[in-house]
Task: inverse folding
């Protein structure tokens, strides 16, 4: 059950969008396809929806081969980055669309649409046109529209990408809660690692048309298999030829075993954290304000830095 | 569409305004005013009897049939080709796009002659069609074809930018919600191009009613049969030297054109809002 993608390849002219992708999305999970733009994640999502045809490979949805199936027969809900609202239809008619083309009885349509509008908190906007809604409201409407047909799979293509930071955050939390209620198999595309780490049960890191790593958010963060995954999932810096997380660098004012002597070049405060830039190959350490004050750090101070034990670090390849 | 701010009265803007007013006044307004004046100079009775003569009534009827048929064909063709050009990338797309614009560049007389060469009694298909009972030249089919040809780009060019701007998102959303191609056309595509389509149809109607050159060549200009309103005006002026009747018909054609321009301007303004 869920989604099975096997051996899928896709080219656009000379550009290889996807190269031999195998992926299993488990039923009922909330899965993020994470990667830089142009990496192929949207193409993969569109292939699952049937909006794009793979050159090679197969797609199975809930155990049935969907590779040659028209999008309208896949029973998939799709949410677009720019909402794709039906601009000439009211919010009510937008949400009702899938049910109306399925010729469901009027009373059932009305009941279901009101249920969904309640779910996405848009009951009082039923008669408005999409143009009269904010971006966040439009995207919630699009989500209700996609859920109305009770899809086997819900696919979201950068759903919060066009929204401002505060609304993004709210909608993200809201999507997580919604998924906990509805439990529909959900795949969403994002280039925002924080979004992926916060919302999803599982993350698929995609880069240059290939899957780099698949795993739970903690696994990917704590045990990235290569430099790309490590640097894409969070801040990184280098210390003695190792790629490390800046919050895993310990700073001492006395010599310590394995400690590297360095000078503090700059101290930068960002909210609750303090970034201490060192004079050794551009390393920086992330400290809390309390740590920085306890150590009595100042620009020019002599310190010893070392990577915290038992922490992940990856040897730098010579090419990087 | 942002409107430019109202400029202050600089000498340059005043000069430009004066030139533009003078130009449009001389070229457009003066002839229109003169025609109106000449139309009603002989009196309202003359005007009414000129319009109610059998030849005039027949000419209006022929114009209505030819123009409406051509507009219907143009609308269907325009929607199909507009969608094709805006949404699909295929071999020969640029060529098709250029061919759609060709009627703007080609003189209508040439269009008429070309149709005669193809469908006339000695043309390529003419004898074949005539054996099967279809007369094209000197009959309504040829007149409709000529009119369709000259007004071909008007609907297509009104639709393509709107379709391109709308993009594929709504279509794809509708498809994933279970709508088939026909349902998508009826529920999504047509409603979203409604204003642009009306605009194109109105322009096309105005052009079809006024067409003279191409229709003159293919119709053989037979009074009481294939004589359209513009042809009637030409015949009254050149052959019958009946200027009063010519002005009366011209006046009616002009009023129809004004209404068409008014409607299209109103649609455009509503679209901007």
Result:
């Amino acid at each position: 059950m869920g989604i099975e993608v096997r051996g899928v390849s896709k080219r656009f002219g000379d550009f290889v969008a996807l190269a031999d992708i195998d992926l299993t999305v488990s039923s009922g999970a909330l899965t993020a396809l994470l990667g830089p733009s142009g990496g192929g994640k949207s193409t993969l999502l569109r292939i699952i929806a049937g909006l794009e045809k793979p050159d090679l490979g197969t797609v199975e949805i809930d155990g049935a081969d969907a590779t040659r199936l028209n999008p309208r027969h896949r029973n998939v809900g799709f949410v677009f980055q720019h909402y794709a609202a039906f601009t000439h239809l009211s919010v009510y008619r937008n949400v009702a669309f899938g049910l109306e083309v399925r010729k469901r009885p009027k009373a059932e349509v009305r009941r279901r649409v009101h249920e969904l509008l309640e779910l996405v908190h848009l009951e009082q906007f039923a008669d408005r046109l999409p143009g009269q809604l904010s971006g966040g409201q439009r995207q919630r409407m699009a989500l209700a529209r996609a859920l109305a047909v009770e899809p086997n799979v819900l696919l979201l293509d950068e759903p919060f990408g066009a929204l401002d930071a505060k609304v993004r955050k709210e909608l993200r939390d809201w999507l997580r809660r919604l998924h906990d209620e509805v439990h529909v198999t959900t795949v969403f595309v994002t280039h925002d690692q924080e979004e992926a780490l916060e919302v999803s049960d599982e993350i698929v890191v995609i880069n240059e048309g290939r899957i780099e790593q698949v795993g739970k958010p903690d696994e990917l963060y704590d045990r990235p298999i290569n430099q790309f995954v490590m640097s894409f999932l969070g801040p990184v810096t280098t210390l003695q030829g190792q790629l490390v997380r800046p919050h895993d660098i310990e700073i001492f004012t006395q010599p310590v075993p394995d400690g590297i002597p360095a000078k503090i070049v700059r101290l930068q405060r960002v909210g609750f954290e303090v970034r201490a830039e060192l004079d050794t190959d551009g390393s920086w350490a992330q400290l809390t304000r309390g740590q920085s004050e306890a150590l009595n750090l100042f620009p020019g101070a002599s310190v010893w830095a070392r990577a915290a034990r038992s922490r992940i670090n990856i040897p730098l390849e010579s090419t990087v | 569409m942002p409107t430019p701010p109202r400029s202050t009265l600089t000498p340059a803007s005043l000069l430009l305004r004066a030139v533009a007013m003078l130009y449009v006044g001389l070229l457009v307004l003066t002839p229109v005013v003169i025609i109106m004046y000449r139309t009603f100079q002989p009196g309202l009775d003359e005007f009414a009897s000129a319009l109610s003569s059998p030849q005039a009534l027949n000419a209006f009827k022929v114009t209505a049939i030819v123009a409406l048929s051509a507009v219907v064909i143009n609308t269907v063709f325009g929607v199909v080709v507009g969608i094709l050009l805006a949404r699909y990338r295929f071999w020969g797309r640029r060529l098709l796009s250029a061919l759609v614009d060709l009627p703007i560049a080609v003189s209508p007389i040439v269009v008429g002659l070309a149709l005669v060469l193809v469908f006339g009694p000695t043309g390529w298909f003419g004898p074949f069609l005539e054996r099967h009972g279809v007369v094209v030249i000197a009959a309504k089919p040829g007149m409709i074809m000529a009119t369709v040809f000259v007004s071909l780009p008007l609907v297509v060019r009104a639709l393509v930018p709107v379709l391109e701007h709308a993009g594929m998102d709504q279509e794809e959303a509708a498809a994933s919600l279970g709508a088939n191609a026909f349902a998508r056309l009826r529920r999504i595509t047509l409603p979203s191009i409604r204003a642009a389509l009306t605009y194109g149809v109105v322009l096309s109607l105005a052009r079809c009613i006024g067409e003279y050159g191409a229709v003159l060549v293919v119709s053989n200009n037979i009074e009481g049969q294939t004589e359209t309103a513009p042809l009637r005006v030409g015949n009254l002026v050149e052959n019958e030297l009946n200027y009063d009747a010519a002005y009366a018909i011209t006046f009616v054609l002009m009023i129809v054109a004004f209404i068409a321009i008014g409607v299209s301007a109103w649609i455009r303004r509503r679209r901007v809002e």
